Amino acid sequence: MLARERYLRLRKQRVEQIILMPDEGENTTPYFAQTYEAYKRDLMVEPGVLVVKVGYACDWVERRLQEKQAQVDTFTFAGNYYSLPLISLLSRPSRLELLMEILETPLPVRDDK
Q1: For residues 23 and 26, which has the higher predicted lDDT (pLDDT)?
Q2: Structural domains in the chain, sorted by start
Q3: 51-81 confidence digits (pLDDT tens)
Q4: Does the pLDDT at position 32 exceed 70?
Q5: Between vectors from CA 85 to CA 81 and to CA 89, what angle results, nearest 5°?
Q6: What percent of the chain lies above the pLDDT cut of 90?
Q7: Dihedral angle at the C-alpha atoms of 51, 8, 47, 77, nearest 10 degrees?
Q8: Which class for 37: exposed (0-12), middle (13-18), buried (19 or more C-beta within 10 A)?
Q9: Could you please report the per-residue DSSP string of 50-110?
Q10: CA-to-CA distance for 42 and 38, rounded, in angstroms?
Q11: pTM metric for this prediction
């Protein structure tokens, strides 16, 4: 997992969101939160982090990121892998844009004839 973050940093590739599907039990350094901080510092960006919990997962990575005030969202997946609804989470660059889209969606109107 960490090799990809280092790769992004060394290539100076900017991203808006990082998606993790870990068991969250990091057991070697550098830990993700440390790598994330270095990525933010070197590229002057602050991508959101989406932690997708599949099966048994603790909250180690999530808590470390929250301690560093990173924007962290979690999604606990407990269903059919073919229906994993990540597309809607990936299609919006920010929470604000998602909120704006929700608020702009007209409410259904009942036809009382």
Answers
A1: 26
A2: 2-104 (3.40.50)
A3: 888 777 788 888 888 998 888 888 777 766 6
A4: yes
A5: 140
A6: 1
A7: -20
A8: middle
A9: EEEEESS--SHHHHHHHHTT--EEEEEE-S-GGG---HHHHS-SSHHHHHHHHHHSPPP--
A10: 6
A11: 0.66
Sign of the Cα torsion 96, 92, 21, 81 reads positive
Q: Which residues contact 36 (CB under 8 A, 6 or more apart)?
A: 5, 18, 49, 65, 68, 70
For helices 2-11 and 32-43, the axis angle rounded to 10 degrees is 10
Any idea what the Cα angle at residue 80 is, between residues 76 and 86, rounded to 5°?
Answer: 55
Count CB-CB contacts under 10 A for residue 28.
6
